[in-house]
Design goal:
This protein is mainly alpha-helical. It has helices at 21-26, 28-37, 42-49, 51-85, 88-124. It is rod-shaped and about 75 Å long.
Amino acid sequence: MSIFGDSHASRPSASHLSLDSSTIALHLEVVIAHLRSRRADENLIAEVESIPELRKRRNAMIVDGDAARGRRKVLSKDIGKLMHQGNMMEVNRIKEQVEQCNALAASADAEKLGLDEKIQDIISRLPNLLHEK
């Protein structure tokens, strides 16, 4: 029993955990219990609780960006074939689609970067998890 009246026996063990976004998402209840034991600010706890959702959005941006780049790759191959055939009208139409894919990929990458920065900002403000002794 500590001077604060908390017993570390009531707190889940974190001896095997490190503080990264994956660990926090997978073991959120353990991290929150340790933050509460350290008397962390409730706003910080709320931010930590948002990490799993931020990671879902980040993963969705990765999928969206990869899909746009994959579509662009297919379209680029089509452009070469159509240019060889001399179908410049269709080439120009497909080039517009390629530009849309580029914009989608860039947008997804920018949003992913923003989410990465937000997650890292939260993690950088976290205290270490409590030692068991």
